[in-house]
Design a protein that fits this description.
single chain, 25% strand, 2 helices, 71 residues, 37% helix, alpha+beta
């Protein structure tokens, strides 16, 4: 959970009315939290109040594109 602060994750949960157990993963080194129901919250460490929802399929596609560009 590099880069994540537990109290900020708890705040994120409260903001979305979720429980911390609902998170399916924390991407190491990334500012992404994902929920098991297929929606994710993008959590910007420098601006805790900035949250966005995004479908995981779109997120996965963008991550693949970034990885392809990096290779």
């Amino acid at each position: 959970m590099k880069g994540f602060i537990y109290k900020d994750i708890k705040r994120l949960c409260k903001e979305y009315g979720r429980h911390i157990e609902d998170f399916s993963y924390f991407m190491r080194g990334q500012t992404v939290c994902a929920w098991k129901d297929g929606f994710s919250a993008f959590y910007y460490l420098k601006d805790v109040n900035k949250f966005f929802k995004m479908n995981l399929e779109e997120q996965a596609r963008e991550l693949e594109e970034k990885e392809d560009e990096g290779n």
